Amino acid sequence: MKRVLRDVVLGAMSVATVGAGTVLAASGDAYAQEGTQGAAPAAQQSGVAIRRVLVEGNQRIEPATITSYLLVRPGDTFDAERIDLSLKTLFATGLFADVQIEQRGGDLVVSVIENPVINRVIFEGMRTLDEEDLEDEVQARPRSVFTPARAQGDVQRIIEVYRRAGRFAAQVTPQVRELDQNRVDLIFEVDEGPVTGIRSVNFIGNEAFSDRRLRDAIVTAESSWWNFFSNNDNYDPDRLEYDREQLRQYYNNRGYADFRVVSAVAELTPDQKDFFVTFTVEEGPRYEFGEVRVQTELNRLSEGLLRAAIPIRTGTEFRGDMIEDSIDAMTYVAGTVGYANVDIVPMVERDPVTRRVNITFEVDEGPRVFIERIDIVGNTRTIDPVIRRELMVSEGDAFNRVLLDRSRQRIRALGFFGDVTIEDTDGSQPDRSVVTVTVEEQSTGELAFAAGYSSTESLLFDVSVTERNLRGRGQFLRLRASSSSQRQQVDIRFTEPRFLGREIAAGIDIYSLRTDFRSQSSFENQSTGVGLRTSFPVSDRTSLGLTYSLIQDETEIANIFVDHDDDDLTPVINQCDTANPARPYLCDQEGTFITSVLGATINMDRRNDPVRATRGYDLQLSQDIAGLGGEVNYLRTELEGGLYYGLWGGFRATFRGSAGFIDGWGGDDIRINDRFFKGGSSFRGFDVAGIGPRQLIVDDTTGEIVQEGDALGGNVYAIGTFQLDVPLPLPESFSLGSALFVDFGTLGVLDSASRQSISLGTGESLIVDDSASLRVSAGVSVFWDSPFGPVQFDFAQPLEHEEYDQTEEFRFSTRTNF
C-alpha cells in the first residue's frame, strides 16, 4: 500500500510547476473511473442481498465513518448505480487517494488507500519573502489531509503572491517526503526568478497632456536604477487598475468630464524580464461649469446660504473634485444651523454642444440617526482611550458629520497617525449608525540629528531621542543633548496630556544650558533650571497654558574685547578690571543670579489642517513676569502666528511672523542672557546672534568701524517670513520639495546704560549701535524625505543688512524616525 501511495502521489505531483495543474486536478477523476470499474462485478449480480459491508486498508479512519458515506446497507440488494454514487461520495470527502468497491460472495468490500496527513509545510528557496507571507496564503496546514489537488491550488496561490511582488517568472514545485504512520512533509521548492519591472509606460490617444505628465499622474513607474527605494516600478495588475482611476481623476479635474480609459494592457517583453504597459484613452471635449442650482425646502437653510458656500463658479474649468468639495461645504453649513443630517444629491447634466456642465444640488433633511457604536480600528499601539478622548461625539449621541470632521482633525493633530478616516455604516436599526474610526499608526519615536555650517565656521550638532506616544498613552518624553561652538545643552521634557484624567495637560522640564558667546559677545552663561507646565482648552480651538520656572544663571565676562576680523587682539587686558578706563557696562552683569518666572500663553488655532494647512491661521501670545521671588525683575511679551493659503497645483503660500518685547521693572535693566538673540534658524541668511545691537570701536575722526565687537542682543524684535512652497516637476518617488522664502525683520533697543559710548583715549571710541534697522534675506529651501529621515537645505542671500552683521549663506538639518 505504501508503494502504491508513493507511486500515486509522486506520479501526480512530479509535473506540478507553474503551468502544471491539470494532472493533479484530474487524478481524482482517474481514480473514480477505476473505482467504477471495480464495482462492475457487483453490478453483474444485482438482486442479491448484501450480507455484510467490510472495510479494508483504513489506518486512521474508523470503518463506521467510511460506511456512513455509503448509499447501501446490509440487507440491501447489490445496485450498481447506488454503489457508483457511493464510490463518488467517498472520493468527494478528500480523505482517500484510492477507493475500490467489489462483491465477494454476499459481502460488499470497500478497499481504501487513505490520503496522508501533513506533518510539516516547508518552503525552500525563498530570498525576498518571509515564510509568514506564504503561510497566510496557502491552505495546507500541519495535521490536515494531503491531496494533490489542494497542493496544486497552493502552488497557484504562492505564484500569485510572487506576482504581486513583481516576480512573474517565479516557479513553484511541490514535493512530498514520506514519513511513518502515513504522514508526509509537504515541501514547496521556490525559484523566485528575477524582478519583473516596467520597461516603458506608453499612452495612446492623449493630446491634451504629454506622456510625461500622465506618467507623473499614475503610480506605476518605469524601472530606473535610482528607484531602488521604491517598488512601484514592478508590474502589479492591481496597481494598474488603480492607475486607471488616477488617470480618470487627473482628466476629470482638468475639465475632461467625458474622459475614459479604453484599455490598460501589460505585455511581457520577449526576454520575460519586463513589461510594456500601454494605456489607451479617449479624452473627449473640455468642459466648463455651467449653471449651478440648489433646491431645498428646509426652513432654516435657504438656497442663498447654501449657494454662497459652494466654491464652484460658472465659466470656470470643470473639476470633478469640486462637486465633492461643494457637498462637504454645504454639509458643514447645514450642521452649523442645526441640521446634523442632510442628504445632498448632485444632479450632473453635460451639454456636449455648449461644453458646459450644469449641476443641481438637491438638499433634503435626512432621517435623524443616532450613533449606536464607535469602533476604533488600526491602533496596534495606541490604546483606545487616547483616540476616544479626542472625539467630539459619543455613543448614543445624534449623528453629526460636522463634529465627526472636527474629531478627525483633533485625532490627526495628535501626530501619532499617518492617516485618519471616519466612516459610518448602517446599524442594527434604521435610525442607528455605526461609526468606524480607522487610524494608520506611524512612528512616534524620533532619533533626531541636526548639523549646521555658517560663514563664520560655526558648527552645530544636536541629537535627541523623542517619544511622542509613550507606551501608547499619548505621553511625550524627550531627552536632548546639543553642542556647538556657542552652546551645550542637556534637557529632559515630559508631558502628560490628560492629567488626573481631565482635559488638562501637565509637564515638567529639567535642563542645563551653557552658552558660550565669547565669539559673538564677551560672555559665557551657565543656566540650570526646572519648569512646570499646564494647559487646558478655553474653547474648541483655543487653549491657555500656565508655566513656572526657577532658574539659576552664572555669567562670566571674557577678559578681552571681541574682534571678528582680527585674531591678534591688542592690548590683551582684563576688560572688567575696575582700573580699566574702558570698562564696559556688561561687566556689571557678571555673577550668579536666581530668576523666578511665572508665565501664561494663549493659543488660537484656526487652521483647516493641523499637519499641512491650506487655509486659516494660528496665533500664540505669551506673557512672562520675573520677580516673584529671585533676584531678577522683568516683563516679557511675545507674539507668534501664521497665515496659510493653498494655491492651485500644490503651491502653498505662508506668512509667519513673530515679535517680542522685554522690559525691566523695579529699577532693573535687562541682563544680556535674558535679551533676544536672532539669526540662524530664526532668521535665515544670518549667523546665530548675527543681527542686532553690537559694540563697535570706531575712529573718532572718520567714524569708520575699526573693530566689530560684542553682539548685545536686543529688547525688541520683529521678524516676518513669506514662503511659497513650490512642487518640483519630478516623480513622487524622488521625495523632493522646495520653497522660496523672504525673511525680514529687526532687532534692537537696549537700556540706556547699555548704550553708553566710551572714549578709549587713542582717537577711537567704544560705541553701541542699536538702531534696529531693517534686515532682509531671500533664498531657497530644499526638502528631501530621504530613507534616513527628512533633510532640509537652506540657501539664503542677505539683501539688506548692516556692515557689522554676521551672515550665513548655507544651513542644513536632518532627523530620522524610529
The main β sheet shows up as: 16 strands, antiparallel, barrel
CATH superfamily of the largest domain: membrane protein fhac: a member of the omp85/tpsb transporter family
| Helix content percent band | 10-25%
What low-confidence regions span 5 or more consecutive residues with pLDDT below 50?
1-44, 453-457, 562-572
What is the CATH first-level class name of the largest domain? Answer: Mainly Beta
Question: How many DSSP E strands?
Answer: 35
- Order of strands side by side in the largest beta sheet? 16-17-18-19-20-21-22-23-24-25-26-29-30-33-34-35
How many helices? The count is 13
Structural class: alpha+beta
- Overall pLDDT score: 82
How would you portray this structure in words?
The two termini are 58 Å apart. By secondary structure, the protein is an alpha+beta fold. The strands form 7 sheets. The chain has a 16-stranded antiparallel barrel. The chain has a 4-stranded antiparallel β-sheet with strand order 28-27-32-31, with no helix packed on it. It is elongated, with a radius of gyration of 39 Å. It folds into 4 domains: 197-282, Ubiquitin-like (UB roll); 288-365, Ubiquitin-like (UB roll), CATH 3.10.20.310; 370-441, membrane protein fhac (Ubiquitin-like (UB roll)), CATH 3.10.20; 445-817, membrane protein fhac: a member of the omp85/tpsb transporter family (Porin), CATH 2.40.160.50. Residues 1-44, 453-457 and 562-572 have low confidence and may be disordered. It contains 13 helices and 35 strands.
